[in-house]
């Protein structure tokens, strides 16, 4: 059986290294071909401008900076993404409140469910 992310290129924008490692492991278990990570808004924008991604996961808060410019860059390129956050819904910004949000800490099953919905044809 094909895995959910077989052959997909995934961008993870996350500033907490332990959380990032956990996400990378989960995405690998789902068959992801490549997982590219960024820890800052600047790194993420540079990656988005230089590479093509099939999907992304975006931490709402990157070391005190919000990730709105990263969300805009992904949306402009039609890259589907989900947010991850340790905070509440009040952080959702206008126009992006319909995006799926994973609450940290999240389980493998929660991640799988959100990604299946995100990537459904």
TrEMBL record:
Keywords: Phosphoprotein, Transcription, Transcription regulation. Residues 9-119 form the Response regulatory domain. It comes from Mesorhizobium temperatum. Coiled coil: none annotated. It holds the Pfam family Response_reg. PANTHER family: RESPONSE REGULATORY DOMAIN-CONTAINING PROTEIN (PTHR44591:SF3), STRESS RESPONSE REGULATOR PROTEIN 1 (PTHR44591). One of its GO terms (biological process) is phosphorelay signal transduction system. This is Response regulatory domain-containing protein. The modification 4-aspartylphosphate is found at residue 59.
